[in-house]
Amino acid sequence: MARATASIGTTNYATSITTGHHRLTADEGPELGGKDTGPAPYDLLIAALGACTVITLRMYAERKKWPVEAVHADVHFVRDGDSQRIDRTLRIEGALDDEQRKRMADIAERTPVTLTLKRGLEIRTTLA
User: InterPro entries under this entry (predicted)?
Assistant: First the structure.
């Protein structure tokens, strides 16, 4: 399934990420000692959720042959003291009726990344 490698040297906190044949850079903002050369880890997390959401909804609309012109997901990680949540707002362009829009929102609640985040998952760490 999915696999990524992350590496960091001595430059705070620029991180090189490789996944498949793609290369990304992650970093922290200046407020945390980084240089903001790429998205921060939580930005990458919500970006993955947003991407999975719009891809899944596009696939669903195509399968149903619904007239969806574009799907947008605004995803926001919110931390309030010890409480955390993700707020996701969908904007669907196209001539859909209310029932179709409601169905798209229902499908968004069951995308693969959404379900993974809602269920949680075991993380095993080993030293090489």
Answer: KH_dom-like_a/b, OsmC/Ohr_fam, OsmC/Ohrsf
Global pTM? 0.93
The bridge status of strand 5-8 relative to strand 15-19 is: antiparallel
Q: Where are the alpha helices (DSSP H) in 1-128?
A: 41-64, 98-108, 112-119
Read off the amino acid at residue 109: E
pLDDT under 50: residue ranges of the chain: none
Cα angle at 123 between 5 and 80, to 5 degrees?
100
Distances, alpha carbon 72 to alpha carbons 58, 88, 92, 114, in Å: 10, 10, 6, 16
Side chain identity, residue 62: E
